[in-house]
Write a structure and sequence with these properties.
Length: 291
């Protein structure tokens, strides 16, 4: 089955550093248009601010408006693409997990609410008053990136941390589930669960399977995910399965029966009912949207 292309930092050779990249969006789009306007994934963290333009941005089959003040924070592995209806500009930066985590050894990039769970929205809209302050941070990062001052990457990492801190303050206002009162251990366990689901969802479809992997009771695991995301472990497992089904149905000529078999459902009718229950559309009708 044809897979989505996965872009790596090595495909954006704008500097000698292989774990960080920054650019103005207009130039980035001009240089890499063929790669980023078709559905694809990354193996890095991506953050973009739009200062002008219009269109939409689809992330894991959720569509968001692109306009001045739109910010997107994309996790490694998420599927996305752009479609623009007017000239766009702004700022883009991306980096590896190690770029941040090796600098701040007492915390991790995954602690920021827009990165700690794929369930959280990748989109934030900034009003003009906050837009100016955030834009200044993006501009400072790009200016430093294009220069050759001493301690260049130490400053870039510090500015990036400050950027994520400011974005978190705005994000928490609009995302009550991404509360900064959530125990850090719960965030860590939720992230671990999502990683395990991503690795085992084809063969392990029960919450009890993952609770056993994480050495805790199913009840306690449910308490954690409900606290962090307002969802049960079973919800997360099912949503991961349905997301993969969407990817397969939209990106290839794979039949519904083949998708069901691949995802571990011998009962194709049951799989179709599950898909329609989650998305309010049948797998066949969903596939027609993309073919």
């Amino acid at each position: 089955m044809k897979a989505f292309p996965v872009l790596s930092l090595a495909q954006f050779p704008a500097d000698n550093k292989d774990d960080f990249y920054a650019n103005d969006f207009a130039h980035h789009l001009e240089t890499h248009h063929k790669d980023i306007t078709k559905p694809h994934k990354h193996d890095f963290y991506l953050t973009i601010l739009f200062t002008r333009g219009s269109g939409f941005h689809e992330v894991d089959f959720h569509s968001y408006e692109v306009k001045r003040g739109s910010v997107f924070m994309i996790n490694p592995g998420q599927t996305h693409y752009w479609e623009f209806s007017s000239p766009t500009d702004g700022y883009v930066l991306f980096h590896t997990k190690a770029f941040y985590d090796l600098t701040y050894t007492n915390r991790t990039i995954d602690n920021f609410p827009f990165f700690y769970s794929l369930q959280n929205s990748p989109h934030l809209f900034l009003e003009q008053e906050r837009m100016e302050a955030i834009e200044l941070l993006f501009h400072s990062i790009l200016q430093e990136y294009r220069g050759e001052e001493v301690l260049k990457y130490q400053k870039i990492c510090s500015l990036t941390d400050l950027l994520y801190t400011e974005l978190t303050r705005e994000y928490l206002v609009n995302s009550p589930l991404a509360s900064n009162e959530t125990p850090p251990l719960f965030l860590e366990k939720t992230r671990k669960l999502e990683g395990l689901i991503d690795e085992h969802y084809l063969h392990q479809k029960y919450a009890s399977d993952y609770a056993e992997m994480m050495h805790m009771s199913t009840r306690h695991l449910n308490r954690i995910t409900q606290s962090v995301l307002g969802k049960s472990p079973t919800d997360l497992i099912t949503e991961r399965i349905i997301l993969e089904a969407q990817r397969m149905l939209s990106h290839s000529k794979t039949t519904v029966a083949e998708v069901a078999d691949y995802l571990g459902y011998n009962d194709h009718a049951y799989f179709s009912r599950l898909f329609k229950k989650k998305l309010q559309v049948s797998p066949t009708d969903f596939a027609k949207r993309y073919r």
